[in-house]
Amino acid sequence: METVTQTSGTKPKVVIIGGGFGGLYAAKALANQVVEVILIDRTNHHLFQPLLYQVATAGLSPGDIAQPIRHILRDAKNISVIMAGVEGIDPVAKVVRTTTRDYPYDFLIVATGARHSYFGHDDWEMFAPGLKSLPDALELRRRILLAFETAETARDESSLQAALTFVVIGAGPTGVEMAGAISELAKRTLVDDFRQIRTGHARIILLDAAPRVLPTFTPGLSKSAHEQLKQMEVEVRVGTKVLNVTGEGVQLENEFISARTVIWAAGNSASPLAKQLGGETDRQGRILVNQDLSVPGHPQIFAVGDITNFSHQTGQPLPGVAPVAMQMGAHAARNILELAQGQPSKRFKYFNKGNMATIGRNKGVADLNVIRFGGVAAWMSWLLVHLVFLVGLRNRIQVFIQWIWAYFTYARGARLIYGPFKPAVPPAEQRATNER
Amino acid sequence: METVTQTSGTKPKVVIIGGGFGGLYAAKALANQVVEVILIDRTNHHLFQPLLYQVATAGLSPGDIAQPIRHILRDAKNISVIMAGVEGIDPVAKVVRTTTRDYPYDFLIVATGARHSYFGHDDWEMFAPGLKSLPDALELRRRILLAFETAETARDESSLQAALTFVVIGAGPTGVEMAGAISELAKRTLVDDFRQIRTGHARIILLDAAPRVLPTFTPGLSKSAHEQLKQMEVEVRVGTKVLNVTGEGVQLENEFISARTVIWAAGNSASPLAKQLGGETDRQGRILVNQDLSVPGHPQIFAVGDITNFSHQTGQPLPGVAPVAMQMGAHAARNILELAQGQPSKRFKYFNKGNMATIGRNKGVADLNVIRFGGVAAWMSWLLVHLVFLVGLRNRIQVFIQWIWAYFTYARGARLIYGPFKPAVPPAEQRATNER
Lengths: 436, 436
Known about the structure:
Strand content of chain A: 15-25%
Number of helices of chain A: 12
Strand order of the largest sheet of chain A: 5-2-1-9-21-20
Distance between the termini of chain A: 40 Å
Largest sheet of chain A: 6 strands, mixed
Number of strands of chain A: 25
Oligomer: homodimer
């Protein structure tokens, strides 16, 4: 494979785009090595996405699950962190163009992830927002909390019902977590706080076109998750196709569900940077990377995490989860260090330690390859793993205290709506000018 | 004074507008009494405003200093909390009109506070935002943190200097706290995190037209505060008039200060509801209330907190601080309970326990009437009092841990900018459509 000849005395320049799990673990593997690294992200923080649903459901504050990227990497003196939007990559000139400056590279790691996708129905986004970023989470929190406020002053039975109906579309881990957390909010946290409504009467409906919840888990664990969701009074409807989403609710094949709050947890599409590199992409826009994670045709460019389709290991794409991105990021970084020394790059191999999903208090499923289990043990394993991987000791302490507190009181510490009362769905013309 | 005749069996209806210190302490005094209470606020939370500057300077998260009003009052079964915007008061029909419904009242407590005012220069707000609400605090946090990010990628010396210059206009408690906190951020918290800039070289300039900082304190304490600010490398300029504020900086009489970040901490004007009641208002738009806190001409309407000018006690208006609002709220509530029983209302008397201001780590001033002191003792007293008065045990624990953590590490737990990189001052047309 190609190596880069350096003029004497200068270190190879590595640019990393994206400060999520992939980009951050790449940067950590390059820290204090003989390379000069620039990490570019359009936000100033690394977001611990697995806990994002807890921000959306008022359990945690944004600051609890986000850390400034430059603070995480402060001891890596060979790494500069730049907050800027990337406008394009020029693989011929070997330059990354941003909103502030252009950054030349010898090696590039693209780790810009994915956003949720609406399978061609982008107009649904306004009525059924998804959950990828902190602004997304705060928007969902606003809608969920406002639904109960709206119900409290509803003038008629039908608007009361619509306000107390929550539809979650997509029964993967995010959808299951959201449905479970909204159920706890309605049926536990809020019950004493309202005078006109019974929040416990709220309907939480979890829809998926697939035949079972958590389809990436084993059928046995799906069944367990389904049972646990029913215990929490979540209405699970699998094998159910969504035909349309409007400001009034969700149209199914045989039924219209009136709902003020609809949440999108189905489908992803890769970051648009994937297309710019000219290589082959899959249906979700993901780059079909080489075995060493390089981008076909560009031996100096590596792609890691949710932007990639890596099917070499199992014949199926690796799932879009944090451990895959972390291992890919570190591997791409090690390959760059090898190439910079004239050594060949190595194949990537994902080491799968297992999968877990939480459903709610004392509820979850875990597949640790050798054993599989559901219920309280799975839930506790989930809590423990997420606490350990959360970046920053202070955040770990804060989150731990909030979880303990919530366990004993059912209270949630971040039940606030920023700013004044606004409609759930702002007028189209206003949305257009608000940058996401 | 007038009493309200009730039809038999119905309890007097009390409406409270505003869930700040005044409204909340009124509600607490009416909890589980023989009245029916509706508290209306346009947000869903009570905000502990004395710590708002710590949200603006990335020390605390919004959830740490805000609690849902209905959760605080959940055990007061005679109180309903309504999230709605108030559109007007009809004192003849005795109705409060809101964005959702109209609420009739027998007694009304108006506790809608004040916002910052620009002395007729409303166009300055875009360039020098103030600090009253959570959206204000998040906007200031965004600007302050983005200033350092912008400096890191600055292309020339003059834009670098402007990015690292912070001007705080107004040297009352809020201005002093903001200047001190930005100094700590620049000169301690951020020093290891940047590669191109020395954040310690940032200039923090505190301006006031008055001849001394903290003019509501004694001259001795003002002098102490001034000295402590100088120790923190804050440039204090008293007796300095601001002639203009633009996107480029601040125009003084003899000098233009180029600054990317300008913060407004001078001047208040009362909530516009004050004017609607037809009584006399002062230059800041505050209601000149009667001795019993009722509004002249409306014996069933009381006004409390920052919306009032109460000069009966000292000849000067009572200051716009939390203890005044708390005592006024409770007093108005007790007067309503007296009036409802056919008893006369009583004069309000403010019991002043003292004044404190914090400046920074180990720095502050305190006037406890019998003794006055500055430095570490004042700072610790300030921390203790604010921790005790903060609403909610969980919030107290969270804030306490963050303060301890910050004390030993200099780190700040909420250093995040929501969403992608945006200009400090968005284009005018975009601002117009974004509700504050």
